[in-house]
Design goal:
3 helices; Neuraminidase; 376 residues; four-stranded antiparallel β-sheet
Length: 376
């Protein structure tokens, strides 16, 4: 385990507890644009939450998995064959998917000899994995990948570009689930990474990237720089004492920078990023201001549009989008984000979209050049 090389900072990084002013860039309101919205799944009285998506290489097929419940619950599975414009009925799943204890995630990987596969993860202890070798038509049963646990596993899976078949997966734990029994150190969050050299057949023992009791960094959302030479990871700050944070790797996840705060415009939870055709980033997340700050879209589903250089330089970006207003205490927006070949953004999440009713799964389909012309 490369703990020494990977541990970017020590316990108690109180220097990051800085707050900025309110939202620094304009927001475009799409909350009432029902013409852009597609209901993926809604069941009266049933909590449906936390979807992730995967766009296949045909540029139009999207897979979506989500729990029947708040994180814990049977994994439900749907497919769109037209870029998110319509969605299938529930698809057959392995029996073990009914036993999922945490938010599922899906990721594309490719073996060293070029074979494509999809990995589905289900977290808490132990982290389990299901594999599809036929683009999601059939799946293996969930199986443990090691004697460790975690929360929102795997939040990101990053290819090691210089080594085909090698991937680094990022996740976090709050000392309750990493070991078979809860750790005695309470209130301490750890970011971990684990690696595979065979596209998911085996995973290494996790190594810590960052540990702190002062700021609780979690839900790592990774994105490459445009030239693929750097990886940025956006992080939720769960104590709400500070803004969201970001850290970087310049050596394919072998080491990491110290995390630092991002502007208010990017502060929130479960950041998911994709590049637009014009080279900018579209980053979807749950808008949760840090203590002492306000946001006109607080607790709702938003997106940020800006350049990778904004992440590096700590600048606020171009503008934000209110994708959908959420009516219950920030319980929304673990999103999937896909960009189709024609530039259409297909972003999918859950939320309390109707007051006093159970959350359900919604897709928003939009083109940024059209949205950018709207009043801000």
């Amino acid at each position: 385990m490369r703990a020494v090389a990977l541990l970017a900072v020590c316990l108690g990084c109180v220097g990051s507890l800085t707050l900025a002013g309110d939202i620094e860039i304009p927001t475009i309101d799409l909350d009432q644009r029902e013409d852009l919205q597609v209901v993926v799944d809604r069941q009266p009285g049933q909590y449906l939450g936390h979807p992730t998506t995967l766009l296949l290489e045909d540029g139009k097929t999207i897979l979506c998995v989500y729990p029947k419940g708040h994180g814990k619950g049977a994994i439900l599975y749907k497919r769109s064959s037209d870029g998110g414009a319509t969605w299938s009925d529930h698809l057959p799943t392995p029996k073990s998917w009914e036993t999922s204890k945490e938010t599922p995630t899906i990721h594309r990987v490719v073996t060293a000899d070029g074979k494509k596969r999809i990995l589905l993860f289900s977290g808490l202890h132990p982290v389990r994995q299901s594999i599809s070798d036929d683009d999601g038509v059939t799946w293996s049963e969930l199986q443990p990948i090691g004697n460790f646990g975690g929360i929102v596993t795997m939040a990101s899976v990053v290819p090691v570009l210089s080594k085909p078949g090698h991937y680094t997966a990022l996740f976090h734990d709050d000392s309750r689930f990493f070991y078979p029994r809860p750790n005695l150190v309470k209130g301490r969050f750890t970011l971990y990474q684990t690696t595979t050299t065979d596209a998911g057949d085996h995973w290494s023992d996790p190594a810590p990237i960052f540990v702190s009791s002062d700021i609780h960094l979690c839900e790592p959302g990774a994105v490459f720089s445009p030239d693929k030479k750097q990886i940025a990871v956006l992080l939720r700050e769960n104590r709400r004492k500070a803004n969201s944070h970001i850290l970087f790797s310049n050596d394919e996840t072998a080491s990491w920078s110290n995390p630092r705060p991002v502007p208010n415009s990017l502060t929130g939870d479960r950041h998911t990023a994709q590049y637009l055709p014009d080279g900018r980033l579209f980053i979807s997340f749950r808008d949760i201001p840090s203590q002492g700050n306000t946001s006109p879209t607080a607790n709702s589903w938003v997106a940020w549009v800006g350049r990778y250089e904004d992440l590096v330089q700590g600048t606020p970006g171009d503008f934000r989008i209110l994708l959908k207003k959420n009516y219950k205490s920030g319980d929304c927006a673990y999103p999937g984000v896909e960009v189709l070949p024609d530039g259409t953004v297909v972003t999918t999440t859950y939320g309390h979209w109707i007051k006093d009713q159970a959350p359900y799964i919604l897709t928003v389909r939009l083109k940024i050049p059209e949205i950018e012309r709207l009043p801000k």
